[in-house]
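Predict the 3D structure for this chain.
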Amino acid sequence: MEANAAHDDDVEIEEEYVLLDLDSVPEQFDIPPNAPYVLSGLDTLNPILVIDNKLKLIGHYEETIGTCIALTEEGTSSIVPEETGPSEANKSSGKSNMDPNQCPSKQVKPVACIHKILKFKLFVDTNVPDASAQP
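Done. Predicted structure below.
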């Protein structure tokens, strides 16, 4: 019994990150930022995403080409680059050569490497009879 417990500790859990792509969803659907959603069938070829119990989407996987990395911001403080030494312009004027109109930089750090993109489109149920069809 103790051997089984030791064996369970050696099992590595492999995580796989997937990017959910909703770009093909028409802009007429306003999705609130905190809308509840249900994502099912991730282990199937066509997962289903239901947003706010109103919008039903069907997805398909696409492999990424090259390296796709998800990043997160570390904060919003501005970063001032260190000068390696005084330049001739800085020695004579005593001023920095930084552009005052330049936006502050943000620190980012990698979160995950993404291997698949899950692209969604509107789900059209072909099993529902068309109301406009003549009998």
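The longest strand covers residues 55-75.
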